[in-house]
Amino acid sequence: MADKIRIGVLGASGYTGADLVRLAVRHPNMEIVALTANSHAGKPMRQVFRHLAHVPLPDLVKIEDADWGSVDAVFCGLPHGTTQAITKKIFETYPQVKIIDMSADFRLRDPATYKEWYGLDHVATDIQPEAVYGLTEHYRADIAKARLIACPGCYPTAVLLALLPLAGAGQIDFTDLVIDAKSGVSGAGRSLKENVLFCEAGEGMSPYAVGKHRHMAEIEQEIGKVGGIQDLRVNFTPHLIPMSRGELCTSYVKLVGGATAADLRNTLVEAYADEPFVTVADEGVLPQTQMVRGSNYVVVNVVPDRIPGRAIVISTLDNLVKGSAGQAIQNFNVAYGLTETTGIEQLPLFP
Amino acid sequence: MADKIRIGVLGASGYTGADLVRLAVRHPNMEIVALTANSHAGKPMRQVFRHLAHVPLPDLVKIEDADWGSVDAVFCGLPHGTTQAITKKIFETYPQVKIIDMSADFRLRDPATYKEWYGLDHVATDIQPEAVYGLTEHYRADIAKARLIACPGCYPTAVLLALLPLAGAGQIDFTDLVIDAKSGVSGAGRSLKENVLFCEAGEGMSPYAVGKHRHMAEIEQEIGKVGGIQDLRVNFTPHLIPMSRGELCTSYVKLVGGATAADLRNTLVEAYADEPFVTVADEGVLPQTQMVRGSNYVVVNVVPDRIPGRAIVISTLDNLVKGSAGQAIQNFNVAYGLTETTGIEQLPLFP
Amino acid sequence: MADKIRIGVLGASGYTGADLVRLAVRHPNMEIVALTANSHAGKPMRQVFRHLAHVPLPDLVKIEDADWGSVDAVFCGLPHGTTQAITKKIFETYPQVKIIDMSADFRLRDPATYKEWYGLDHVATDIQPEAVYGLTEHYRADIAKARLIACPGCYPTAVLLALLPLAGAGQIDFTDLVIDAKSGVSGAGRSLKENVLFCEAGEGMSPYAVGKHRHMAEIEQEIGKVGGIQDLRVNFTPHLIPMSRGELCTSYVKLVGGATAADLRNTLVEAYADEPFVTVADEGVLPQTQMVRGSNYVVVNVVPDRIPGRAIVISTLDNLVKGSAGQAIQNFNVAYGLTETTGIEQLPLFP
Amino acid sequence: MADKIRIGVLGASGYTGADLVRLAVRHPNMEIVALTANSHAGKPMRQVFRHLAHVPLPDLVKIEDADWGSVDAVFCGLPHGTTQAITKKIFETYPQVKIIDMSADFRLRDPATYKEWYGLDHVATDIQPEAVYGLTEHYRADIAKARLIACPGCYPTAVLLALLPLAGAGQIDFTDLVIDAKSGVSGAGRSLKENVLFCEAGEGMSPYAVGKHRHMAEIEQEIGKVGGIQDLRVNFTPHLIPMSRGELCTSYVKLVGGATAADLRNTLVEAYADEPFVTVADEGVLPQTQMVRGSNYVVVNVVPDRIPGRAIVISTLDNLVKGSAGQAIQNFNVAYGLTETTGIEQLPLFP
User: Same domain, yes or no, for B162 and B277?
Assistant: First the structure.
């Protein structure tokens, strides 16, 4: 077995960080040497996440107290806006470190777009250009050579895996995309907000951030790139669903060039024939979050619309795994030349 | 107080029937004199629905054993396909009885359409013409005179209350309607199916009946009627959400005639200004099922789409109340000249 | 109809306050004239609780800005420790006001016990003696004459309704009571705490406050009173269950004097024969929270234990209704000589 | 790596069978060669459990169509009453096969007790004596030599891991055990029963099988064995909780010999110091199902009771993993001399 690669996790007290730790503990090529969480610094991880009490882990420390010299790879689960500065700082002293960023800070290539959506000036525009968009199935070769990987948001992962091949094949109208998205509550993170209390989010559902969810920018960037469209605008409407994990995107597309729903499905089957984590469901089988919970798998499928000339593309994933920590590890595996499925091949947990 | 109106409930062992009983018990002008449920005939209602054990109720009997002569009004919560024959039979002997049908059997005016969607020949085509579509807010005058009221499906109620005024105002394109619908599990009824087991439907969500849900026919019928379009086709895509009650429809519409989202919202505000059960949410407030649970209220709103020239119309209701039993009682109140809100004015239960 | 009684609600931004408002709006003898909520003062209630947006309500004000002179009765849903001072102050100026307190501040008759459990000196020891413990079924006569009613905690209501008659009948051993209690998450209130986030409390369950839950003091006080035992100690072990509403207490009792489980059940049947809100389930039927959700009903039953000489007493209620706001209104009805069931006779909401 | 051991799974269409398959697919020393499920025979597994569609699996066959000669080990997830005959038959032809039984058929050593609880004559009394009770931590040496391993029920696993060491240390009164148990709905299996529909089991909770749950017999057998008590009777009262996975048992014990809660905790700490899957929670930390979901871990702890001379012992596990499929694999590992944690070392899934 290869030597262990020493990893650090920035922001280990969030759900994303915790899920990364959960998987990293059992990854045969990882050794966790640093966990940071400013507000919980000094505490053992077992106090912050009781489900991790079964194994020994480093105590949480402040970012500035971590010894980045002892770390080969950094996973970053910080809130957006905080990652750029720390990334820059780590690279200055330890340019050999690889950073796999699960935040939004390096996903958008254009700093102006970043500012438009996140309301902040990008403070690391010098390193932004080397960031690779970490949608593994579509940027694998670049990821293999990168030292800064900007993992996609959970929604964009679900949407783009479904739509990019169709866009590339010229089978759908780029300007008429309606994406109705549904997410479990863990997508909102662990911070204390009224709308994610059990009594508020349970036994009910609601749209949120309609017309302004930041993941829209990534979707527009990536689909626009395929289509060579500068200012693509899509409809992306997220809903909060009373479940912890899981995301399902129902995309309503207009077919072009005489394509049928079956053609679209074939495009996906071909595109993902050799992919270990993307499953095109059997014909007529509708993807559901239960097919992927707790796993790095994505399920996609295409079904005909009742309106002629349209189709419905459905995709689902676990927002904390393939939508975040799992895909980050997948990218880590690619970046270090490991078997891509290492440490993330668990089958979904059902029921 | 007016004399009590004697009611019978056909199909009292389903969720719809039970919710009707729940409300009828406390309705000041109703007296429950017959409850039928063929498979549970002979049992006390308290054994079939434990939450109704607090009050005395007639035992369940077979349909053929009920004395329809002692009944003024019949609420019908039978599965589709079974209502036509029994309705016909009751009318033959007791033409003065009013029937408020919560099943699908009389909703579609065209028997051919009925056959197309339900796979059955309509066996009461002679009385079908007198059936009034029981969307109270839009057919009130007809309901007041009817003896056969075909209450809309739960989804059509949510969709049509949101879209009919907009269609009527000529503000939306009838041919480009994408309706992404989400429902709690009670919409599937109480029958034993694997997909509605707690472990299957919980902590997960799934689309279902995509492209073939029967409620689509009603939506097309009613919107088509406003627009004078014979063969209107809409996209209607339902999803099963892990909650018991509640339905939310996100309708993506193309604006015509220069209308804006704000114009659409105004249309709804005006249309429902005097309606006791339809609330247009404050500007920018997104409807959520938590706003209506357990009540006869509907909440609607319109928000701008990021794509110019489009808008998003959101509507929500409790599928068992306004989507079924509550609306049936509302129609009963109208039909008998009672105050329309009688017995169904409870505020939503939250949390 | 009697004139409306003008009410004010202290602490209207909590779940208890909101549920009181929900019921009060439809109570035929109540008129809501004041709603207070210090942190939300100035806001319309519809912004704080969206499910109440269907009806007009007074805006929220600070306690000191409410005009208590315009109020006949005050419902208090403040956190413990804050109620005593305000109660005292209101009584000083408006001695004719009736105060129905849903907080814990006046439940314990002994100020020393209050201090022991709540860690605070009682600041209204002069009016404490006139507080009546508001367990309606057992203190009805006193409540009818009281101007200060200390409604029991949700758990004590469930436990005492089940055990007081048995204790009174001398059928159970007071010193060997094990009460395993389970509550939905709304019992924890609306404050932002990590353990009640959807992702923390969902799909899982946990004991909490074991050996130190404050409701234990009330249970010991009331059962001890019946038995004439000064320092009674009971086991009371609460668990947090992934549901919003509902509470179920499983009490394990040792039988004395040759009593059997059937004897105990008979005692309950007799004790509650004329009670409108207490249902003794049919023999062998196990109480479940689904039988009472959203209602003021309580269901109790007794079943034999496999260990000879022991029995299991089970009781269930909705913590926000019979466990709080509903019982408060029941007490209000008693105190004002109204029909006791007025405004709280809704049947349970199921499913 | 050792050669693969070829396994067959009897009853692969239940939750227990499916969870075994989920884990077996990724077990480095297992090769799945046969899956049986009589009612679904002929179907691909992916149609019966959609979450297993990501990997190739043998199609489901009838028991009589499986080639037991090609199998080294059989996992049995059949309903009780059906396992004895098939076990006997397999052993007759293939005596070298090891059978790891997850059903209840060989757990009770006394055929009379089996008949008393299961209402059936034991039809394999000749092989019953060689069955080892598969509570790994307490029967490890026997399991290593066994060819027939009767894995404990989910509840007994949780209860016995907590109580056996305390019973063995003589610290608790065997005759005064009250065990209040709570389980997620998956414990009821995948069969279609009304009480486990989403709408029936969700947002509510209920006791069930009070005084007659069959797992009681195992608990009495094993604790009785330690104490040398022939006819031990314990109180065991299960409750159905609205979550899919997870089980928590709150055991109320009377201390003997001057033992304290701290002494009991120390006993557990010592007993499980070297156990890979049993975690004694930090002092004062209350076990919750969230600590073990989806994993083979058990968490136990002891806290003082408010009643002097008593203590509360709490234990939790995932009923489908450590309570069934996980423990079965743990036993398989022991039986084949593999590292005991192989294939079941995933950390819990949270949130």
Answer: yes
Q: Is A154 an active-site residue? A: yes
Instruction: Mark whether A114 and A172 lie in a shared domain.
Output: no
Tell me: cis bond preceding A152? Omega within 30 of 0 counts: no
Helix (H, G, I), strand (E, B) or coil at B109: coil
What's the total number of domains in chain B?
2
- All residues of chain A having their beta carbon less than 8 Å from the beta carbon of residue B243 are 202-205, 242
Contact B185 D199 (CB under 8 A): yes
Q: Which residues of A touch C293 (CB under 8 A)?
A: none
Overall residue count recorded for chain B in this entry = 351
For residue C337, give Cα distances in angstroms to C1, C4, C331. Answer: 13, 13, 10
Neighbours of chain D (3+ CB pairs under 8 A): A, B, C
Q: How confident is the model at residue D3 (pLDDT cuts 50, 70, 90)?
A: confident
Taking alpha carbons only, the member of B110, B68, B119 closest to residue B93 is B68
Residue A180 forms part of a structural domain:
yes
Q: Is residue B90 part of a domain?
A: yes
B185 and B299 in a single domain? The answer is yes
Q: How far, in whole angstroms, is CA A278 from its chain's centroid?
A: 14
Residues B166 and B24 in one domain: no
Residue D207 and residue C250 in contact, taking contact as beta carbons nearer than 8 Å: yes
User: What is the average pLDDT score of chain B?
Assistant: 97
Nearest to B303 among A210, A241, A303 (CB): A210
Determine whether the interchain pair D192/B190 forms a contact, defined as Cβ–Cβ distance below 8 Å: no
Q: Is the dihedral of CA C186, C191, C196, C199 positive or negative?
A: positive
Q: Is the pLDDT of residue C1 over 90?
A: no
pLDDT in tens, A2-31: 589 999 999 999 999 999 999 999 999 999
The answer to whether D284 faces chain A, any CB pair under 8 Å, is no
Do D306 and D167 share a structural domain? yes
Establish if C188 touches chain B: CB-CB under 8 angstroms: no
pLDDT of amino acid C24: 98
Instruction: Tell me, yes or no, whether D90 and D232 share the same domain.
Output: no
**CA dist A83 to A10, A60, A100, A148, C336, Å?**
9, 18, 11, 12, 63
| Set of chain A residues whose Cβ sits within 8 Å of the Cβ of C192 | 192-194, 197
- Which range marks the domain in which residue C225 is found? 155-318
**Which CATH number does the domain housing residue D187 bear?**
3.30.360.10
Interval A301-345: pLDDT, tens: 999 999 999 999 999 999 999 999 999 999 999 999 999 999 999
Closest CA to A91 of A112, A103, A73, A111: A73
Mark yes or no for CB contact D244/B196 under 8 Å: no
Evaluate whether residue B140 is within a structural domain: no
Return the ∠ at Cα D322 (arms to A291 and D157), rounded to 5°: 140
pLDDT at D1 over 90: no
pLDDT at A128: 97
A332 with A100: CB under 8 angstroms? yes
CA–CA distances in Å: residue C172 to residues B156, C167, C250, C316: 57, 6, 15, 20
The reply to whether A101 and A216 lie within a common domain is no
Cβ of B351 within 8 Å of Cβ of C292? The answer is no
Q: What percentage of chain B has pLDDT greater than the value 70?
A: 99
Condensed to tens digits (0 to 9), the pLDDT of residues D311-337 reads 999 999 999 999 999 999 999 999 999
Given this model, what pLDDT does residue C184 score?
A: 98
B294 in the same domain as B173: yes
pLDDT-derived band at B3 (thresholds 50, 70, 90) equals confident
Which tokens sit at C71?
């109020």
Structure tokens at C103: 């907080």
Query: Residue C25: inside a domain, yes or no?
Result: yes
Predicted pLDDT at C3: 82
pLDDT in tens, B34-49: 999 989 999 999 999 9
Look at C291 and B345 and tell me if their CB atoms are within 8 Å. no
What is the per-residue pLDDT across B106-118, written as a single tens digit (0 to 9) for each? 999 999 999 999 9
